[in-house]
Amino acid sequence: MMRYYFVILVSFLLFSCGSGGSGRQSDKKSEKNMDNNYQVHLITVDPGHFHAALVQKTMYDQVSPTVHLYAPEGPDHLQHIDRINSYNNRADNPTNWNTIIYTGDDFFEKMLEEKAGNVVVLSGNNRKKAEYISRSVNAGLNVLADKPVIISPDDFPALEEAFRVAEEKGILLYDIMTERYEVTTILQKLLSQKEEIFGQLSAGTKEDPAIVKESVHHFSKIVSGTPLQRPAWFFDVEQQGEGMADVTTHLVDLIQWECFPGQLLYPSDVEIADAKRWPTMISKEEFTKVTGINDFPDFLQKDVKNGQLYVYSNGEIIYQIKGIWAKVSVTWNYEAPPGGGDTHYSVMHGSKCDLVIRQGMKENFVPALYVENIKGESLNSFRAKLETTLASLPYNGLETTMAGENVIKIDIPQEYRVTHEEHFGEVTSVFLEYIKAGKLPEWEIKGMITKYYTTTTALRMARENN
Question: What is the predicted pLDDT for the residue at 33?
C-alpha cells in the first residue's frame, strides 16, 4: 500500500506540548514546493545503508532542512528515520531535519514524478544503484552516491553513459570518498609532494609495489553509539558487491588522489596484473547477532556450506597506473578485537624515505603516520628538515618523535582527529561547493570513471582466476 508520512523529527513530548510532531498534518502542495531560500533540497532514496543518515549528521547552510525520503516500507527506512531522530534529539548541537516520507512499491517512479528536490542521496542496496543513478541523471537530478556506484563489470558502460548525460544536462554525479579526509592520509599525500623529504615516488615492481593500501573491516560494529544492525542483503555479494568492488573503491581512489593529484586519469592508464578473492565464513549465530534474523534467508542459501555463510568480501588487486605499481587489499572479519575497529595500512615508497600509515594495537587502533627507511643523509639532518617542512603545512602543532631505529613518528594534535562519521559531512560540504560552482573538476570525473574501471575489471579477472 502506498502511503505518505509527513514527519517532523521531534520528540513525542514536544508534540504533546503543542510544538509540532510526527502527527502534524500540513498542506501537501506547500510541502512539495521547494523553498527558494535554499540552493539544495535533498531526496533520499531507498536508504538501506547507515551512510545515508551520516550525510545528515550535520546541517548545511545551503541545504533545506526538509528532506524527502522515498523508499519501500520496511526495516531499512525505519532504521534510517531512527538515526535521523537521534541526530535531531541529541543534547550536543542537535539537527532539525524535517523528513517527508513516501513508501510504496512505486517509490522510485514517484520520486521521479514529483522531483521534490534537486540532489538524490543514494546509500543502500548496491545492485540497484546503477539503475537509480542512470534514471536520476536522465531526469535531470544531481546525485550524491555512497560508494560503490557499480559492483559489476556489466554496469561500467552504463556508468560512463551516466557521466556523459550528466555533463550534457549540466548536473553533478559524485561518489562519497570519506577517506580523503583522514588526517594521516592527508599528511601522507602532502609529504609525498615535498621532494626535499620524499624525493620521487618509486616505480616499484609487481612483487614490491610503490604504493600499498590495505583495509580491514568488520561486520559487527558500533555506529553513532549503538550496535549496528545490518540488513540480510548486506551479506549477499550480488546485492552488496564483493569486497573487491566495494571497499577497494576507497583504496584505488586514494592511490589516484595521492599519486596523481589534479591529473586526468583514464582507463587506458591502468593495467591489471593480478587479482584474487576469498570468503569470510559467518556462522548462523553471528549472522543472527548482526541482523536480528534467526536463519539465513533463501537468497543466501546459494552461499551456505556446512552450516556457514561464505561471503566473498575479501580481495586483492595488483596493478599499474601510469607505470606505477600499486597493490590494494580488503579483508572483512566478523568482529574487531577488544578496543579495536576498522584499520588501515598504507605505504608510499620514495627515493628518500617511505611514508607509512599504521593502525594496529601498538597505535591503539588510531592511525599513525611514520617516516621510515630514511636514505641519503644523516638522521638528525633529515629530522630537522622534516620539522621545517611540517611547520609549513596548514596544521598547527605537528611534532616528531623517534619510534625506532631510523623511524620518525609524526605527532598529530587531537583537534585534527576527525571520526569516520564526521567525514561524511566534510565530503558533503565539498560536494555543495561543486554544486555552487555548477560543475565538477574534470579530474574528479575522469578519476571516478578510471577508479570503477579498475575495480570492476579486477573483479572479472579474480572470478576467472578463482
Answer: 56
